[in-house]
């Protein structure tokens, strides 16, 4: 089954923004709808209460037995039968009962009596004329010097008009929120395209590098992309360096093998005896072996790695020193460590082993009794990873300052009587150069011999 292609960053962002926008507008719409509904109910209550006050202001009670309604009703709808707006006034006596013309012929269940000063708002409630909102208020009517008359005024309005009003608001709200959602989504897409434009530009720049139209990623990028582009440029440079190194190594190897091969051919063409030929072949074979070993070591040194796991120093050093103590057991050399627990080498395990191995082997070779290995962290502000300083010292004869540069050349040995091929320190220099480090050689203040100081700056 073909694996489904993941969504693009723009599609993901648009989908996420659309979902968030839908949720936000949904909650906003619900809140606005609820607020409008509550406000409409409150407006209904205030309107019905104002009708009650209008009826009380225009009505009168004769001799405490007869109710006279107002000559002009608060709203013409009270005069139209079945209009949906109803008024009922009831008292203790049958003659103190009045209904608006709109309520004639309809059985309205407005027969409850309220205490003086009590008000009540209900709705929507079921009634014979449908569901209505009802506002009721109990009052006490003073009639001359007679006993006050208690009246209850009920004013009701059908919910149909109320629902039409709410429905109209909801339609308007939905249209506006829908239009707002479309505008915000289009704006979000435009902002995303603008925000992701540096990524598209970086993709084009990478294509130019792959097609050979550019050597590195050019131009300025936002600060969030700067670490990535810097790492990509380092990776591009690293690839070119690797290719150049392999080419140079093969060229150097071919050039270096020309001389021993020429010597062998010359020996074959000569009339010397078998023993001379045998010795020449043995010498030149060993020389070619040394050349190939050196060139392979040089070619396989992996150099600076952009993405690498930090490696602890102490564990690698312990393994190397253990082997060297067996090789140089006769010298009884004491090797001491002073390694910062946080010290790390950012590179390959092989490079670390080659670096430490050659430096420590050189120290063991020349030391009299003591060798020290020191590793410290090199810190710098605002850097992604700390640097490293390695120091290998011995109590041997040391290296005169004027001979340091000569000794570090390929194939040069400090003493021809000491076994070796003179390529160890050259490999060390190649590794250090590949990791953009530095190598310093001077006299050890503590032991009096040579001190090799390797430093990799923070990055």
Characterise the protein shown here:
Helix content is 48%, strand content 19%. It has three domains: 14-164, Beta-Lactamase (2-Layer Sandwich), CATH 3.30.450; 240-300; 310-456, Histidine kinase-like ATPase, C-terminal domain (Heat Shock Protein 90, 2-Layer Sandwich). With 459 residues, the chain is of the alpha+beta class. The protein starts with 8 loop residues before the first helix and ends with a strand. The protein is built from eight helices and 14 strands. The radius of gyration is 50 Å and the shape is rod-shaped. A hairpin with a 3-residue loop joins strand 1 (60-62) and strand 2 (66-68). The chain has helices at 9-58, 159-210, 226-269, 274-300, 313-327, 349-366, 404-407, 424-434, and strands spanning 60-62, 66-68, 85-91, 97-99, 119-125, 132-141, 149-158, 310-312, 334-339, 344-346, 370-378, 387-394, 438-443, 450-456. The longest helix has 52 residues, at 159-210. The chain has a five-stranded antiparallel beta sheet. It has a five-stranded mixed beta sheet with strand order 9-11-12-14-13, covered by helices on one side. Its EC number is 2.7.13.3. Residues 1-22 form the signal peptide.
